Write the structure tokens for this entry.
Amino acid sequence: MLEEIQKLKDEATSALASLKSSDDAENFRLQYLSRKGALAQLFEKLKDVPKEKKPALGKSLNELRSFLENEFESSKNNLGGKAATSDGNIDLSIPGRKRYTGRKHPLTQTADEIKRIFTNIGFGIADGPEIEDDYHNFEALNFPPDHPARDMQDTFFVKSEEGKYVLRTHTSGVQVRVMEKNKPPVRVIMPGRVYRNEAISARSYCLFHQVEGLYVDKNVSLAELKGTIAYFAKEFFNEEAKLRFRPSYFPFTEPSAEVDVNCFVCGGKGCKICKYSGWLEIMGCGMVDPNVFKAVKYDENEVSGYAFGMGIERLALLRYGIDDIRLFFENDLRFLNQF
Amino acid sequence: MKISRKWLQQLVDLSGVKDEDIASRLTMLGIEVESYENFAARYDGFVVGAVLEVAKHPNADKLKLCKVDIGGETKSIVCGAPNVAAGQKVPVGLVGAKVPHNQHDPEGKPFQLTRAKIRGIESEGMICSANELGLGDDKSGIMVLDDAAAQGTPLSDYLGLNDTVFEISLTPNRADCLSHLGVARELVSAFSKKFIPRRIKITEDGASITESVKIEVAAQDLCPRYSARLIRKVKVGPSPKWLKGAVESVGIRSINNVVDATNYVMMELGQPLHAFDLNRIAGHKIIVRRPTEDETKFTTLDGKERNISPEMVMICDKEKIVAVGGVMGGMNSEISEDTTEVLIESANFNPSSIRRTSKALGLSTEASYRIERGVDPNLTIRALDRVSEIIAETSGGKLAPGIIDVAAMKFLPKRVELHVDHVNRLLGTRLATGEIIRVLESIEIPCDKKSETVLICSVPTFRGDIERDVDLIEEVGRVYGYEQITDSFQTKLNFDTRFRKSTVLDELRDLLAGAGFNEIMTNSLQSVDVAGFHEPSFVVLANPISEDMAAMRTTLLPGTLQTVGVNLAHGLKDMKLFEIGQVYRVIDEQQVVGRFLESAKISMALSGTADPMSFDRKESKFDIFDLKTEIERVLAFLKLDSWDFISYDTTKEYKQSLKLFVNGTELGLAGKVGKTALQKLSVDQDVYFAELDLTSLLALQKSTNRFRSLPKFPFASIDLSFIVNNQTPAADLMNTLRVAAGDMFRDISVFDIYSGEGIPDGKKSIAFSMVLGSEERTLNEGDIAGFIEKAEKTLKEKFSAELRKQKS
Ligand SMILES: [Zn+2]
């Protein structure tokens, strides 16, 4: 019996290999796979074998059936392809029709990634106006009038007869707006477009995009700020990202720090990208200054908070190794299609 | 700001401290060192040599064999310079030294000296030209040094370049570090070093200053302290080498021994000083006051006449203004070669007043820069003594006894209370009281214990930036080291519904990217002409970078066309672009800020090939219907169920143009961009552009959806064609058919338009494909026939249309 199974397998296989047309295929089906075919006849014979041999033989027969059915299907399909070539003379090696492949702007993609990371750890998202009043852009953030800290950012002023308005130099004004309208605790990031009155060059553009973060609650500490930023850096860059917190100064935070990440181009040894320091500056941050809390009528003895701000362009430049910020705003498709 | 290591070393003992450690510790203390250069290292291996004898090279006419004493050792050096001679002192590079500039290399790259045979004779070094040392252009021969130079002296010492200069970038709060003294204080703390004790040596001589000079401070609000000293019998001349070298090392031009001394002390201690020629001060009296109404012009030291205004502070004599206080002196009292009596001003001015003056005059000086940021009011006397010491030494002057010191008050240390638990709460640390005291005292802030956990800190007057306990906490964190604070990350996940933002814009971006669009981002500044062309009340900047960026954009069109132009210039002709961005205008009603209305727009642009040519299809270019497809894609995505396009042809920039109306409100424009607009941006192919008012569309967006059960009965589709007048719009016919179908209506589209043979002149045949259905049953032939009859009748009445063909 086993020999018969093997014999049928060999015969059928060679018959499959010689199929040339759909008529051949139909003949094959009738001969081997139909209700009266060779395979069915073998199943018929199974009735007469001794009981103890039935399971093993039955298994072999079932295997043969599925083998033949599969082989038959694929041979039939190949037949179809060949037939079409000969019939319609279509060359299937011709590539598909060209269509547009759209992409989101690399700055959108970078902002999306930053938003994803922070919303995952409980941050909400808020936004505010780009044309801002002096109060929200400066004064409430502890930049007194006639203070040299105002020189840290070259400001565009709006012509207006009724007040002092600027194109916001940072998204920090949204911090103030969020706190004015909401009681603590608050935990938000604030992405948006900001402006600086600087000559346009490979390193600076008249506008860029920022993501600002704010967390105000009971007992928020610098240690917590460090931990949060470390989490962000590992998510955004990689698990190996090392950070350095360097004391700095921003009027609206005290203490303040500048955050550097170890240069991933040279691994910290020093290269052109990191100006031979081994570190790349990625953001500014600090603990919310009590004067800001006073301005938004939060009780500085009850709550504390941290704030941070990063430039999306800066992060995208580092992430993709882009060397000219103007590329983001030229919208050259050869550039946009790379991301 | 430049800080010299040599200079620092006069103040603090830095023995054993490496340059790189100074740079990194300062940076980690918040005093950012951007770069530093060690000039001594540049001349490693170069010494002063004395040429003992010069002989001819046996194998080359132009070469000479020199014996050079480099300090107890004689080297034999081959030299090709024509001017080398016995008895000269010369710069010698020894084997291993790196010559900064190779004058035989076109790029002048440095090279290292090796032991080499030149025409068969070994040379143990090289006598260099000024050019090779990077000290000038002269390459005609070797550089000849002073006869007095001692052989063996390192060349960097001889040149006075044995120094490292640090380039420091300071944040505006750290005015105290705008001097070598301030930076030295940080280093004392960072490296647990000590200040080098030094007393200023001055001798007073002659009549007291008060007999020669009177000082009156009328504007004490603007000038809380004015101190002065007088030096007689001064001989103004060039500065000695050390003084010139010192001021030049930190980037200040050397002028003369008096002016250099004042600048030197400013760089050393941080106190701006000004020297007047007393004999040019009328009545020998200084009055500090605001200018009178008549005083509107003043010529500053730089020779420029400046407009002054009544709120500024002026230094005057009995007749005239002699200086703009805290900013710059005047030409009329300047130190000159004839000056013999020098009055030194050491004053403290109101920082915001000086800042306003400096801004108004457009004049920022080393002095105004420091005063704006705050100078220690208790520094005036020390600075006067120090500058007197130097002027007496370098100009032979005699210091008049006494100081005139007009002060509004005593300037005492601020006392600030600091709670240890506040420090630890804000920093997230567990610092002990003793540790906090140690840290603060290392930066000269003494602390008294009010209790075991409360400190009273005395903040010295040079730290004007420290006023509150948080300022002290920052100092503790900074000096203790942020790196020493252990990270903590215990985010509690209480998601806050107040800040849940709609993600519809993100989804819209995904939709359009999926539909083959590239997202672009363009400048939100544009020219006044462009902004005003599209919207009469636009936002104008008071201080634009340039004319073409003087207003806030009112439309996304120019940015998009510019993008099309850029890509065409690169040979990319096919594009689908979109942008989501703000436009800005001024309206009558009060907004969040002023009367500025910011609203979001979405733009879409199609240009070039819609469907490229392929082996079996013809190429098709984008047209207005492709644009309508895309607009309708957005509207359908926002789940709007009805809209109208009204065509019109009056706009200035579109040729085939449409206005989009939703619920009766105009919410967008679409069309083929006109020639003029295209030419302005050198675009030479058709651009189809749409700009929709996204803010309003989002407001109309249908947010909640109710499920409608799926149709139980199959739909029927029928084709109808009508002959109508050429001018009859398809949309009107379609609307009429929709109404005629009533509840049965499911869908309609145009599948053919034809005129020509078989169709009367002035007429066209237009064919529609309609889908009809019912909720209750499968439509039968009677239902369809009934509809066709009704449609034919209505269209005939309304449009004189004739039913041409039908198929169902
Ligand atoms: Zn690097």
About this structure: Residues 54-88 of chain A form the longest helix (35 residues). The two ends of chain A are 64 Å apart (CA to CA). Residues A 263, 265-266, 270-271, 273-274, 278 surround zinc ion (CB under 6 Å). Chain A touches chain B through 92 residues (CB under 8 Å).
